[in-house]
Amino acid sequence: MGSMDLLAISGSLRPDSSNTALLRAAQALAPPDLRVTMYEGLAELPPFDPGLEPEAAPPVVQAFRAQLQAAGGVIICTPEYAHGMPGILKNALEWTVASGEFVDKPVAALSSSPAASGGERALAWLTQTLTVMSAQIVPEVSRPIPFGRSRVKPSGDVVDPALAESLRAILAGLAGAVEARAARAAQADLP
Q1: Helices 18-29, 161-189: crossing angle, 10 deg rounding
Q2: What phi and psi values does residue 181 have, to the nearest 5 degrees?
Q3: CA-CA distances (angstroms) from residue 72 to 4, 35, 75, 155, 163?
Q4: CA 77, CA 18: separation in Å to the nearest integer?
Q5: Whether this model's pTM surpasses 0.85
Q6: C-alpha–C-alpha distance, residues 67 and 176, integer Å
């Protein structure tokens, strides 16, 4: 397979977020044939309006959906706020329920926190939401990442070699799931 595009979504708006830093680290560690693009529009998405038909969504939502459609896979990294994922991330996901961009899309679901739990509760909520949306969560690359703030700098520079290895494995596993999905789709198109 040639080059592959992944979309990375951080559930945090904080400029020095360890979740965003982890995704920047993954972006920097990606092999040349794997392009990881950071989604930067989370704060601009308006509150989800279930009364709108998918095609009537605001332009910023349409742009978000287009980025999801173009990506072979998605990496989401969420912080844990009040034992769950932030409302702003849930809002973004809700904008895609009716339009279906996550249906059968390979996803690496991650959470990070400064605690030893790594944000397990937020990850559980994220996983439940993505499952309902029929995303293809790749279990072997979905995990909590404990002590995130001490393992990666806000710039995305990884301090912990074990974390760098883990991020490389996450990227490789997600890329493998994207390739497998493409192979299944090609097989289904055969006469």
Answers
A1: 70
A2: -65, -45
A3: 7, 10, 10, 25, 24
A4: 9
A5: yes
A6: 20
pLDDT digits (tens, 9 = 90+) for 26-74: 999 999 999 999 999 999 999 999 998 888 999 999 999 999 999 999 9
How many domains are there within the chain? 1
pLDDT digits (tens, 9 = 90+) for 118-131: 889 999 999 999 99
List of residues 6+ apart from 180 with CB closer than 8 A: none
**How far apart, in whole angstroms, are the C-alpha atoms of residue 21 and residue 27?**
10
What residue numbers bound the domain in which 94 lies? 4-189
What is the tens place of the pLDDT at every residue in 64-112?
A: 999 999 999 999 999 988 888 999 999 999 999 999 999 999 999 999 9
Q: Any idea what the CATH number is for the domain that residue 101 is in?
A: 3.40.50.360
